[in-house]
Specification:
Length: 355
């Protein structure tokens, strides 16, 4: 376990990173290459997706941190150094990924119950520890995800957050093959949810704002597209027999609340979009009909590998646009504007066209 990946070339002594030096500002800097600590590995990053959750990390940059935080939590790269006591399953040169959850402690009450995604001592990558807008990144061994050979690094990166989040949400939805499932919000998460829902055998309704996304939604797997600007989405779902599950990827509490009326008895609303605004819910609608509201976090590394394997098995891929690391702020601004179909990915190499 030396500090060189293969013996073919020496470890770089410095690496480039985009850090949140001011709220809303990304700065390209050169940093000293670190050595992994106990239970850690050092990853040479190949690709990092840009997620809507990066907004809070970048806009709310903590100026007391020195050096400033490096954002990014959809990271794929290769292990180039192993720290002491890192899990034996990880080898030098192995391609791995890291999602939002940076690795469980294996000691807290939640870990002792096997609920590793709820670990009380787990870093949030790009927020409470440095992320993947960089050529190098340290990661806890317990947070690593094995990447299938069939997936390019740029393809795999968004699956580590947008993919696992929607894949797990659908598995928790209570819906069975043939049931109507509605996906609210057809963006970075929603475009993955549509594909997974179709491949899982659901009758899929995409719910979005405006007709500009309708054709894409149908191409991604939706059987029906519902435009909230021109019709009552909940009424449309009820006319279709009612949704067994609604998976929402947006933060707009009013839009989410308005759609709940489209659930069948014992239907579930699964929340992925976070937000500080309260969610208005009719207690009577939940009680009379035994409907429920469920929050769903991304998932464990093992679950992430299941999502990756399912993506390979069913030919689900994120639709991406890529830009090189030094254009991270441009890519971030494009993600914020919504002018991307459907996920921005930073590469440490050359620029690619949209897939």
């Amino acid at each position: 376990r030396d500090h060189e990946p293969t013996g073919k070339r020496p470890m770089k002594t410095t690496y480039r990173a985009m850090q949140a030096s001011q709220p809303g500002v990304l700065e390209l800097v050169e940093r000293q290459t670190p050595e992994p600590g106990d239970g850690e590995v050092l990853i040479e990053v190949e690709a990092c997706g840009i997620c809507g959750a990066d907004t809070s990390d970048i806009e709310g940059a903590d100026l007391s941190l020195q050096p400033p935080r490096v954002p990014g939590h959809e990271v794929v790269g290769r292990i180039v150094a192993l720290g002491k006591n890192s899990p034996s399953r990880w080898k030098l040169g192995q391609r791995v990924g890291v999602g939002r959850l940076g690795g469980y402690c294996n000691e807290c009450a939640q870990c002792r119950q096997g609920q590793f995604q709820l670990c009380e001592n787990q870093p949030f990558v790009g927020s409470s520890c440095d992320g993947g807008y960089a050529e190098m990144m340290l990661a806890r061994g317990t947070g690593l995800v094995s990447i299938p050979d069939e997936l390019a690094s740029e393809e795999a990166a968004p699956i580590l957050c947008a993919g696992i989040a929607t894949f797990n949400a659908l598995k928790k939805s209570g819906a069975e093959a043939g049931d109507l499932v509605a996906i609210l919000g057809i963006g970075g998460l929603g475009h993955m949810a549509l594909q997974y829902a179709r491949k899982m055998g659901f009758k899929v309704a995409a719910v979005g704002r405006g007709q500009d996304i309708a054709e894409d939604a149908l191409a991604l797997g939706a059987h029906h597209y519902i435009d909230t600007r021109s019709e009552d989405a909940a009424a449309r779902l009820k006319a279709m027999g009612g949704a067994k599950a609604i998976v929402t990827t947006i933060r707009n509490a009013a839009e989410v609340s308005a759609l709940i009326a489209g659930l069948v008895p014992r239907g579930r609303l699964v929340l992925l979009g976070t937000g500080k605004n309260p969610l208005p819910v009719s207690a009577g609608h939940l009680v009379i009909g035994e409907r429920s509201v469920l929050g769903s976090i991304t998932g464990t590394p093992y679950e992430n590998e299941k999502a990756l394997d399912f993506s390979v098995l069913t030919d689900v891929r994120p639709r991406i646009e890529t830009l090189p690391l030094e254009k991270a702020f441009e890519a971030y601004e494009k993600m914020k504007s919504g002018d991307v179909k459907f996920r921005m990915v930073l590469t440490m190499k050359e620029t690619h066209d949209a897939h």
